[in-house]
Amino acid sequence: MNRVQQMTAELNQILHSDTYQFEIDTEDYVFGFKKTIRKRTKNLAKAIQLQVKLANDCGRFLSDTVRIVAVRIYRNGELRKELRAKEITSTYNG
Question: Against a cut of 0.70, is the pTM above it?
């Protein structure tokens, strides 16, 4: 039983040792406001879910006037991926 607990502890350390940070740039087209929303998690499963959701939502409108302009994804403080709305909408439009 001790070996199982040790393996479980090692697995949890691997899964929760990295810090994932997301920066979401939004822009209000009517009033011209820009804001960066920051989210951070240590849970790998939550980070993967958030990455998929933000990749799908980049370029979409959160409300009638507020749109997600860019998303930056960091792992342990290092930039891993950056998505911009113009690049994504141009791939959908062909």
Answer: yes
